[in-house]
Amino acid sequence: MHVIDQMLDTYPKDLGDVDRAALSKCITACRECAQACAACADACLSEDMVAELTKCIRSNLDCAEICTTTGDVLSRHTGYDANLTRAILEACQTACKSCGDECASHADMHEHCKICADACQKCEQACVDLLATL
Amino acid sequence: MHVIDQMLDTYPKDLGDVDRAALSKCITACRECAQACAACADACLSEDMVAELTKCIRSNLDCAEICTTTGDVLSRHTGYDANLTRAILEACQTACKSCGDECASHADMHEHCKICADACQKCEQACVDLLATL
Amino acid sequence: MHVIDQMLDTYPKDLGDVDRAALSKCITACRECAQACAACADACLSEDMVAELTKCIRSNLDCAEICTTTGDVLSRHTGYDANLTRAILEACQTACKSCGDECASHADMHEHCKICADACQKCEQACVDLLATL
Amino acid sequence: MHVIDQMLDTYPKDLGDVDRAALSKCITACRECAQACAACADACLSEDMVAELTKCIRSNLDCAEICTTTGDVLSRHTGYDANLTRAILEACQTACKSCGDECASHADMHEHCKICADACQKCEQACVDLLATL
User: Fold this and answer.
1) Residue B132 CB-half CA count within 13 A
2) Residues of chain A positioned with their CB less than 8 A from the CB of B75
3) For the whole model, what pTM was predicted?
4) Which of A36, A84, B55, B132 is the most buried (most CB within 10 A)?
5) Please, what are the domains in chain B?
6) Which residues of B touch A23 (CB under 8 A)?
7) What local confidence, expressed as pLDDT, does residue C79 receive?
8) In whole angstroms, what is the distance from residue D84 CA to residue A134 CA?
9) Spatial separation of the C-alpha atoms in residues A109 and A114, rounded to whole Å
10) Distance between CA atoms of A115 and A86, rounded to whole angstroms?
11) How far apart are CA D130 and CA D19, in angstroms?
12) Hey, are the CB atoms on B76 and C61 less than 8 Å from each other?
């Protein structure tokens, strides 16, 4: 989303020594992953074999919510708190790893799980990359 | 976000007679507006004249949360409920109109408010357009 | 939650001519309904007959999220906007009515749906009551 | 909230060897803390000296959102994932510690910050206690 960079560019104060590219990439990945997971939960819910997808739906719901929250925390710069940024990034990385693995395990049967697994893996990597710069 | 269309394309059941383009456009606009509003609230918070921006911050927080919720409701198709879709779209349209007007009123002083006003107006229009197809 | 009244009591500015009792009751009902719906979605997901409960799960997820958002909007008083309060309360009333009806329709089979239907009906009424005072 | 225990009691499957009392207490604390933080952010926003409270508002917003998300994750039992539960509890504990310290530092000047600091400390402890049982 172009709007992420526009808002970073117009933040009135100094952003500190944050890696701007890694931050922007991570917010973008969180937003895309949240969208993929919300939609994947609903797609799984509409599958005839939904009874076999309940673990996936639960992972989707957790990951969607954690990614949205992480994207919001990363979009706030006032009163920056490195400990909190690290803690929520680690939770997000864990959620994406867990949901990505679950979706990948039946990605060959459900195209929506394949797309979601990709979004999870991209977001997990973006969290790892941003954590490395902190 | 490309992922919105990919998930709509791979939804396992029939999406009904929804206007697919209007739906995709509205989810996209909700996501961008939520991001712009979350970031604008924080940018306002860091302005030296924050005391004059408290109404804007409050509008931003409401609009961000309502847009996120609307984007999530619109991403669920299982057990579609036209009444609920209409009600949340109307709330989203109201939030975007309110926040867009507020941001626009001091957009000449704060570049982040100008970007946010644009995102609000785009999202308000996308809600109106989707409502017209229901 | 006691904390709702404590925070209303210590708000630094005048709350305006809002009906304080109706406001407190509605925030409380939104929080309880959000909790009931989040838990009911997960309980339905773990039922053997989950395939017959997909509409209920979707209603639960929408209602949980809209109740949380409504509780948050109602907890903000700075820059009060009656139009927005009305619009989100109407969306919340619609979500609670829809989810309450769905849960009530199989409340005799699932105790968690009965508890959730009660929470939805209480929240729907609290929205109606608060709307009547605006 | 009574509804938390009612929903735990009626969950259709076995909850595993989770410490039910610690779980219920932690969900309750997350809900109360989220409410306190959402209201405290808005109360700070309405203080005349808002310019000196921007760090507190930011902490409030992060903590409110992380507590809501943690309460939701803890309310889902289907496909339980200990790693994710631990990660989000650690993030919640960090957010509550950070926000509680910030609020406590000016609790003598703002009654709402005192109430919020109490809610944060209670929630931080509930996270620690639940983590100890996992």
Assistant:
1) 9
2) 35, 38-39, 42
3) 0.98
4) A36
5) 19-133 (1.20.1270.360)
6) none
7) 94
8) 22
9) 9
10) 27
11) 8
12) yes
**Residue labelled with tokens 């990359």:** A129
**Minimum distance, in Å, between the CA of residue A20 and any CA atom of chain D:** 20
Determine the Cα–Cα distance for residues A61 and B3; give it in Å rounded to an integer.
17
Give D-chain residues touching A76 at CB under 8 angstroms: 58, 61-62
Evaluate whether C56 touches C103 at the Cβ level (below 8 Å): yes
What tokens were used for A26? 């991570």
Tokens of D106: 């000016």
Quote the DSSP letter at residue C78. T
User: Are A35 and B78 an interchain contact pair (Cβ–Cβ within 8 Å)?
Assistant: no
- What pLDDT is recorded for position B16? 86
Contacts of C98 in chain B (CB under 8 A): 81, 83-84
| Overall average pLDDT of the D77-82 stretch | 95
Q: In degrees, to the nearest 5, what angle opens at C-alpha B78 toward C-alphas B76 and B80?
A: 85
Minimal Cβ distance to D7: which of C12, C39, C78: C39
* B-chain residue closest to C94, CA distance: B84
In this prediction the ipTM stands at 0.97
In this complex, do A112 and B7 lie within 8 Å of one another by their Cβ atoms? yes
Q: Which helix (H) or strand (E) holds C50?
A: none
Position of tokens 């704060």? Answer: B110
DSSP C32: H
Compute the nearest-CA separation of B5 from chain A (Å): 10
